[in-house]
User: What shape does this take?
Amino acid sequence: MAHSRPPRTGSDRAGHVETRGIDCVPDDERHGSPRELFALWAAPNVSYLSFVVGATLVLMGLSLAEAFAVIASGNLFWLLTGFIAISGPASGTTGSVVSRAIYGVVGNKAVVAVTGWLIAALYLALNWSAASVAGIGLAARLGLPGSAALDAVVITLIAGATVLVAIYGHATIVRLYTALTVLLALVFLALSAMVLAHADWSYAPAAPLTGPDRLVALASGLTVVASTPLSYANSPDLARYLPRGSGSAAITMWTAAGAFLPSLVFTAVGALAATALDMSDPQTALESVMPGWFVPVFVIGVVLNTMANNGMTAYSAGLSMQSIGVRLPRVAAVLVVGAIGTAMTLFAVLVFDFLTAVNALMEVAVVVTGPCMAVYATDILLRRNRYDGRALHDQSRTGPYWYRGGVNWPGLLATVVGALAAALCVSSSSWAGPVSAATGGLNLALPVGVLGSAVLYAALSRALRTIPAAPAAPASATTHH
Assistant: This one.
């Protein structure tokens, strides 16, 4: 028997600007089911950037089999993104507020300023760059004279449309992304068929990598692929409106599956594209296998995907701004984040090489995002996902998450030490840590940062007994603050 949905009495309605910021969602305004998370995460990951990443693996010198193994392994980290999403319905608030339990009221502000503002703005710029490069290429094909001014107009239009999605908020995103998933899947599956018609399935590198060089390439490739799921610490923000009784396993799997499946397929197609096309210039290479009429369709697909990806990123970045104490309404906070991301995009497109930017950002960002995600997931396990939303909004010195001086030292130390250790082990075109240099360029930032931070946080939390500070019963998690 079908169940009718309860009426939505709050601000979370499709087609209306969401007015709720980081305050807790009361039970009578919870709605939806974990299944809707699939499209919510699929639309951002039916992505042109996946083609670029897949091609990068082959350009590193990996064989097809090695590239496919790296793609499958790296995308398994979407399970971590899905797992931390369960804290959203449990607490009724955003991930940037839940993390006060991990870092303390004051410590959380420093961490979220980096992960919620800086890293988010960098990914906004990266994705807008991909869409802008495609849009600028289409303008040239249409005969428009190339200029920095035209490039700036294309970038600004794409960014503006994306920010509009973030302004309307959660319910509009859920409704819109269901349609976008179908549309984008059709466009990119058609492109994939064109690429596969030219792919060399028997491809082998001209000079196959062996020994340490092979291990270096595999580790670097895994870091590049895994850096995408590790960058999405905002999954609780998009699940917080779900009813409290929503199953944790369902939330985890629908979130992970929505991102994993398109990422796996289109990154693999990108690797196959590099067997026959010169993917050092991805857009030109892909357009060479398209009929002329399909090029505008492809560009529209890239732009729509970028709007989907950056729409949720800008949405969460605005909430992060509120969580660290910036006294702006959610909409104004989104506009500020959008302006920062647009400025970075102008630099990336007009000053810096796009493919270089992709590799440099995705290899280095994991130094920060990996430890943050690992510590977050470990906290959920240690607390058994019991978070009191009202208590998390209590920022007073007598509140349960003030700890010592406003800092929960196990969380902050585990994250900082993990990030520093990862930085010593990272290897990219822009930075090589001393450990990486001593091992011939081997990039161990991923295992060191993720596993090291998780183990250190669990050990310090138990030693200092900070986890009991969490309330045992989340009965008040839906009270407005």
About this structure: Residues 33-355 form a domain with the Hydantoin permease fold (CATH 1.10.4160.10).
